[in-house]
Amino acid sequence: MSDLDPLDPLLIAEDWRSHGRFVAIATVIDTWGSAPRAAGSHLVIDHDGNFEGSVSGGCVEGAVIAEAQDVIATGHPKMLEFGVADETAWRVGLSCGGTIRVYVERLG
C-alpha cells in the first residue's frame, strides 16, 4: 500500500512512475445492471501486480490485473468486458449481475 491518498489512483500512478515503475491504468468505461463501481472509476497496476483503486469492488480485479500486466509488457491497450452473458462468466464475473467494460492502457 502507498502512503498517498488511496482514493486517488491517478496520483498514485504518477508517484509510481516517478519511481521508475511501469504502470497501467484500468478505467471503467460503462456498466449495465448493478455493477458496484461507476464509469470513470480507476485501478492502477504496476509491472509486479501491485495495485490501488477498484473497478468492480473485487469481482474482476484479479482478471484486470493479469490483463494489465500484459498491457504493460506489450504496450497494446485492451478493452475488457465482464458479465453474466459471456464466456468469462464461468471463470470471473460480477456477483451482483450486470456487465462492466474496462479500458486498460499503459501510462508513459
TrEMBL record:
Using the record's annotation, list all stretches that form the XdhC- CoxI domain: 16-83
In terms of superkingdom, the source organism counts as: Bacteria
Q: What Pfam families does UniProt report for this protein, alphabetically?
A: XdhC_CoxI
State the protein's name: Xanthine/CO dehydrogenase XdhC/CoxF family maturation factor
**What is the native source organism of this protein?**
Pseudorhizobium tarimense
